[in-house]
Known about the structure:
Elements: H1 3-15, H2 18-25, H3 29-43, E1 48-51, E2 54-57, H4 59-85, E3 92-97, H5 99-102, H6 105-116, E4 122-127, H7 130-138, E5 144-147, E6 156-163, E7 166-170, E8 191-195, H8 200-208, E9 217-222, H9 225-233, E10 238-242, E11 253-256, E12 265-271, H10 278-287, H11 290-293
Parallel strand pairs: 3-4, 3-5, 8-9, 8-10
Antiparallel strand pairs: 1-2, 5-12, 6-12, 7-10, 7-11
Helix pairs in contact: 1-2, 1-3, 1-4
Amino acid sequence: xxxxxxxxxxxxxxxxxxxxxxxxxxxxxxxxxxxxxxxxxxxxxxxxxxxxxxxxxxxxxxxxxxxxxxxxxxxxxxxxxxxxxxxxxxxxxxxxxxxxxxxxxxxxxxxxxxxxxxxxxxxxxxxxxxxxxxxxxxxxxxxxxxxxxxxxxxxxxxxxxxxxxxxxxxxxxxxxxxxxxxxxxxxxxxxxxxxxxxxxxxxxxxxxxxxxxxxxxxxxxxxxxxxxxxxxxxxxxxxxxxxxxxxxxxxxxxxxxxxxxxxxxxxxxxxxxxxxxxxxxxxxxxxxxxxxxxxxxxxx
Length: 300
């Protein structure tokens, strides 16, 4: 049993179904199901009864839910109070970044900054999805974010940082796999696998691709490229997604999609209503350099 399982359990109960809960938690539905199965095994009791697509708590589950909510509320309150007591250490920068660059390009950027600009700077790096990044920037948990754009965050300043190509992901034997580029019209009557509309990139694909074609079907269960690639590899359709490092382990064909190159833009983000340290200002300026931005463009 772990803290994530407690938080997952509360969200499932609040949302009343696994699909909505997985989307809200930014994890795949199979991962959420497996986590809850392990949670039930640890507890030794059944938590849910299924009613169609929705779930309801068993009597045992109701007791556990009350306990979990009280536990998490107490924990969150304690963490919030502790954070108020601790000022951010001097010369420290908190940067939240999309997972696709968190373990690859961002650490090199930090090393280069420390080597050339400020060798004593201390970085705390976070790997997050776009919406948690923006919420964290807004409430002061992070100083700088590298994420998608999302409307509704009026206090945040977005600066274009780099772009990601939108591609078609195919099995090698698919008729479109031999093409150098795929036109939108060639996606008509195809079964499309792409992101959930609950995330910014899902909205981008929906508005710039899905609404422009007549697909046979659209599967929007996935929250990342791994989920899309897994469904494509199992023969369930063709993927429409960003070309990221997450796709490297998959033996699939990537074909560029004939849409504007700046369809998918990643931004640097900061809170313009907050006063910033000299370190924040210098790192934003460093990220704005062309030599730095180019390192974030994925080259196959």
